[in-house]
Amino acid sequence: MRVSLPFRLEKSFGECYRLVMPRKRTSRREVLRELLSCGDGERAGPGGTFLEQRDGEDGGSPALWSSAVLWLRVLDVNDNAPVFAEARYSAHLPENNAAGALVRRVRAWDADWGQNARVRYRLGEGRVRGAPLSSSVSVEAETGALYALRSFDYEEVREVGLWVRAEDGGAPALSSNVSVRLVIVDENDNAPQVLYPPSAPVVPVRERGQQPRSDTASLASRCFF
Fold first, then answer.
1. 195 or 202, higher pLDDT
2. CB 17 within 8 A of CB 10
3. What is the pTM of this model?
4. Alpha carbon 47 to chain centroid, angstroms
5. Which pLDDT band holds residue 73 (cuts at 50, 70, 90)?
6. Which residue from 26, 27, 85, 188 could staple onto 6, CB 3.0 to 4.6 Å apart?
7. Residues 3, 17 contacting (CB under 8 angstroms)
């Protein structure tokens, strides 16, 4: 892009140039603001910025002048940490799920360029019923997909809280964290059980005048005689 700047470049010697202020009064803050607006790698992009400089205008009529076009390549600095699309995430997973089931995806973006903008994900440390969190849940480093590594039982685990970290590829790397709440959904997988009164053994009772059977005679005699 072509921009108009409140200063000009003059060649001093070799490949060195010096910054020359125009005749009109221009504050240093204005010059700095213009430089920053052109030197932001996230705004200029990886291709750079065109600066057109008119220099060497003579006093003739008509005036003659020469121009030079400078190609300014802006190098990105890793000055942006990844930002998650949501402030926090939640997901619901029915119990008795299959091991390896997809829970949900988290996503973060980085405003830098190239390697500095490459985002990778990993789980924060935690435990589920005394076991390491990594034995129950995993996150795919490249995509941010969360997977359940085992089948959950609502009667044992009703909720899992975890943290996911997004880290960029800069040096040093910048990172941010987000919380994920995993809710286990109950399913009707247990039949009712009678707790009271307790069940009693079935005792055969003979009608009056009926001879007891041989296999129950001794039991009946113990109960009624």
1. 195
2. yes
3. 0.62
4. 28
5. low
6. 26
7. no
